[in-house]
Amino acid sequence: MLATASTQSCAVTRSAFTGITAYRIVTHMASQHTKITAAVACLLLGILAVLLLTIPTEDLYEPPDYMYGIVLDAGSSHTTLYIYKWPADKQNGTGIVTQHSECHVKGGGISSYAGLDGGAAGSLQACLDDAVRDIPKARHELTPVISSPRDTERILREVSHKIRSYPFNFQGATILSGKEEGAYGWVTVNYLQENFIK
């Protein structure tokens, strides 16, 4: 009986010792797990901080929500640069175009520069500079420029050369015939009267 009591006492002591040891092992493992998790989190935050410090800030901005287009109405009595914009994400490839801004070129129309080399092109500089500021830089190369000078070929070449010196997507200028100008006017009037929507 003494042997049984002694054996039971050893078993209880061993069980208690095993329980305490298991508790210490579990506590130690949890402590190690917490330390490892904290170290990995610090490492990941450090890598993220280094990446954010090395990426140029202009790369972090969202792309603009609009696309832009420039129309240069270069007539004989006046020249005006219009900037239009429309949603970059369109439904069914269509979007509502709105006028963003306009700039009236100082001086007369481009025909008033007929005898002055570089005069017509130089007159556009202030408005083209405004367009560079008005249109987000990320959209410059995507911005088409439509020019419709209605005068001589020499002035047309001069104006085209000037526009090509800017970061826009200029694909050439053409002289509008009276018929083309009338067609564009018809589209404009009908659009403004909302005849295309009804």
From TrEMBL:
Organism per entry: Albula glossodonta
UniProt-recorded name of the protein: Ectonucleoside triphosphate diphosphohydrolase 1
Record key words, sorted: Hydrolase, Membrane, Transmembrane, Transmembrane helix
Active-site residues from the entry: E181
Transmembrane residue ranges: 36-54
Presence of the UniProt keyword Transmembrane helix in the record: yes
Lineage: Eukaryota, Metazoa, Chordata, Craniata, Vertebrata
Pfam family name, one: GDA1_CD39
Cellular component, GO annotation: plasma membrane
